[in-house]
Amino acid sequence: MTFSVTARSAELFGGLVAPLSVPSSESSNSELFRFLRERIRDRSADPIAVSTVFVPDELGDYNVVIGLPYESPSDVPVGDVFLQVPSGIFARFVPSGNLRDPIDDVWAQVDEATESGTLFRAYKEDVEVVTHSGEVELFISVVI
Fold this sequence. Notes:
By secondary structure, the chain is α+β, with helices and mostly antiparallel strands. It has helices spanning 25-28, 31-41, 102-116, and strands at 3-8, 11-18, 50-56, 62-70, 81-85, 88-93, 126-130, 136-141.
C-alpha cells in the first residue's frame, strides 16, 4: 500500500448519474459504471480519461457522477448534471501491481489503509480517474 497526500483545487465535473452507489471497486467495475464511462468516451474522437466522482448526501448515501472536468457550467453538455468538488486534501492512490485489475488494486489499498489506521477518510467527495488505456488514479478525501 502506497499513497501520497496531495491538495486538489476545486474542480467542476459534468456527466451522467448513477444514484445510490457505494464507493468501492465493486461499484467502479460494475456493468453500469463501465457502460456510463463508455457513453462519455463515445462523445470524443480522442482517447479521454473519465472521472467518477462519489458524492455523499446528507443521509450518508453516495450518488455518482461519471463524466469529465469542465471549466464552466455552460461547457457541460445539455442534459448532463454537473457538480463542483471543493478544494481539499486527498490521498492519491495508483495501482501497486498487487492485483491484476487496477481498479480493484487502488480500492484494496484504500481499504487496507483505512483498516490499519494509516488513513482517516473524510467521507466527502472522492474522485476516480480511468484513462482510455485503463490506467487508474484514485483521490480519497482525508482528514488531516
